């Protein structure tokens, strides 16, 4: 089991980094998931690209921890999308 410990620590580090990227991105206001991914990519000069398989589990994890809240709205493309925003606790972490 000791062989898996560095791998688990790496996963936790990556999740923590992604969580902070999401929280910092939402400081500028509510966004839907795709918009969060686009903002992370744009703000990193296209160096960081968050895949859907990582982004949405992170959003759900942050919502479960009550750092984000969400609500369904109609997007700029006239499609139903879940918009995420920082809670008070999330704002404290992102600062």
Walk me through the structure.
It is built from four helices and three strands; from the N terminus they run H-E-H-H-E-E-H. With 95 residues, the chain is α+β, with helices and mostly antiparallel strands. It has one domain (2-94): Winged helix-like DNA-binding domain superfamily/Winged helix DNA-binding domain (Arc Repressor Mutant, subunit A, Orthogonal Bundle), CATH 1.10.10.10. The chain has a three-stranded antiparallel beta sheet with strand order 1-3-2. Strand 2 (68-74) and strand 3 form a beta hairpin. The protein is globular and about 45 Å long. The mean pLDDT is 87.
Give the gist of this structure.
The chain has four helices and three strands; from the N terminus they run H-E-H-H-E-E-H. It is of the alpha+beta class and 95 residues long. Helix 1 packs across helix 3 (52-64).
Using the CA coordinates, give the radius of gyration: 14 Å
Low-confidence stretches: none
Major β-sheet annotation = 3 strands, antiparallel
Q: Note the gap between the termini.
A: 37 Å
- Biggest sheet, strands in spatial order? 1-3-2
Return the string of H and E elements.
HEHHEEH
> What is the structural class?
alpha+beta
Task: Name some characteristics of this structure.
alpha+beta; 4 helices; 3 strands
